[in-house]
Amino acid sequence: MAPGYGPDHAEVARALTGLGQVLLDLGLLEEARQCQQQALAIFERRFGEVDLEAARTLDKLGYVTRELGELDAARRCHMRALDIFRLVFNDDDHPEVAFGELGLVEDARRHHEQALAIFDRFGDRFSVIVRGRIANLPVGD
User: Fold this and answer.
1) What is the DSSP-derived secondary structure letter of residue 87?
2) How far apart are CA 85 and CA 93, in angstroms?
3) What are the pLDDT digits (tens) for 33-83?
4) CB of 28 within 8 A of CB of 70?
5) What is the mean pLDDT of the chain?
6) Is pTM, for the whole model, over 0.85?
7) What kind of fold does domain 10-135 have according to CATH?
8) Per-domain boundaries in the chain
9) Do 58 and 43 form a contact (C-beta atoms < 8 A)?
């Protein structure tokens, strides 16, 4: 560890988020989740729960959690991230990435109408895919 960087330093948390991304790219999902969780804990201890870096980390944690198939947990992560983005920016203009990830979670949960509403709101390219899924769903799905 570099001099002056204790275990709760923000640079350590940033390094953990980067390592988490590499682990995700390698397909080591559980290890990636652990890195994102550790980073989130550091950011929240250092800066509080309403912090942009915490929100970005929650968004990454939600992505990893979705890849692990834990859709309800992924949704909670993305919703928390959105709440923070809204508080920080005081509007809905900036959290497009978190909304996109939330839309993917809703689609994976087979909540296609909700996913479509999210994607349409931001002109997301995924709205075309979701529209195709809705059109091809059997009655009652």
Assistant:
1) H
2) 9
3) 999 999 999 999 999 888 888 988 998 999 999 999 999 999 899 889 888
4) no
5) 79
6) no
7) 1.25.40
8) 10-135
9) no
